[in-house]
Recover the amino acids of this structure.
């Protein structure tokens, strides 16, 4: 600390003693007035950062995921229309974010959180790129549709019977493997091993390195994949769920429509497709799976990330 201001710089030294000597020399020069605190480059305005740096980053990094690009572009549009667009990155606080949410209260919590999640991601990248010293903690809007319902086996049977294809097969795989819907939609035949009585699925992409994992198949998942493989002529390449969508495979938009139809036709109480993954992980935990194995199957980075719903059974 110097004159009430934190000075954080690198000595670029691997030896602690040398680094401490350099720090001491710098303190001396500051005390003697020979060196002033370096002027920091002002943080960019949110508008400029979103348009010139964040938007190109999103389109380049997520070019293989049109849905992700569209999500962030939607969030960028919302932020550019807000009062925060005229603020510098280091002026943005959670108070600004909550004012943003308040002005959009006529929208659903999911839509508001699209903008807030985009802001979170942009500020985190600004820190990584040296545009901002520290990012503020941004609270999301409450009331977003919950994805933590556990679907009972009896309800699932009725629901699956009403599902159109290919959502029925995709939903069966999600429920049986604990994979995310997007991971199942993007499965390719080279990443599936069918060995005659079971098999493995390899998830090759994800939000983090922990999402890249290999999942075992339960009989229901094996049966679905084997039937699709046989029906497709036993291919060695290509999508498991091909379609004429922009991605080239079955996607969340079509899945959403087929899921809604299945709910109407089956009469099952509404739930989010993601609840199928949550149900799988909850059932797995209830069967005695240890926390570390469950973490690996879920694709989480630590055992503290919530992925199951704990239920309390009253004593008899």
């Amino acid at each position: 600390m110097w004159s009430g201001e934190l000075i954080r710089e690198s000595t670029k030294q691997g030896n602690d003693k040398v680094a401490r000597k350099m720090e001491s020399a710098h303190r001396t020069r500051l005390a003697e007035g020979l060196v002033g605190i370096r002027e920091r480059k002002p943080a960019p305005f949110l508008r400029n950062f979103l348009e010139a740096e964040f938007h190109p980053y999103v389109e380049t990094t997520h070019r293989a995921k049109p849905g992700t690009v569209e999500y962030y572009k939607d969030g960028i549009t919302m932020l550019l229309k807000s009062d925060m667009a005229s603020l510098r990155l280091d002026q943005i606080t959670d108070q600004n974010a909550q004012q943003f949410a308040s002005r959009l209260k006529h929208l659903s919590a999911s839509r508001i959180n699209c903008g807030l999640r985009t802001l979170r991601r942009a500020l985190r990248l600004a820190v990584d790129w040296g545009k901002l010293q520290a990012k503020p903690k941004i609270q999301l809007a409450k009331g977003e549709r919950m994805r933590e319902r556990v679907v009972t086996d009896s309800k699932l049977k009725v629901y699956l019977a009403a599902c159109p294809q290919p959502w029925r097969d995709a939903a069966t795989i999600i429920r049986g493997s604990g994979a995310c819907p997007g991971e199942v939609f993007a499965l390719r035949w080279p990443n599936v091993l069918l060995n005659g009585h079971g098999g493995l699925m390899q998830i090759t992409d994800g939000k983090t390195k922990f999402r890249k994992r290999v999942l075992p198949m339960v009989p229901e998942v094996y049966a679905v994949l084997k039937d699709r493989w046989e029906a497709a002529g036993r291919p060695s390449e290509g999508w498991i769920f091909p379609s004429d969508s922009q991605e080239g495979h079955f996607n969340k938009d079509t899945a959403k429509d087929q899921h809604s139809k299945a709910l109407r036709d089956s009469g099952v109480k509404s739930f989010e497709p993601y609840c199928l993954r949550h149900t799988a992980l909850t059932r797995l935990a209830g069967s005695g799976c240890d926390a570390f194995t469950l973490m690996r199957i879920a694709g989480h980075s630590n055992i503290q990330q919530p992925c199951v719903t704990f239920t309390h059974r009253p004593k008899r």
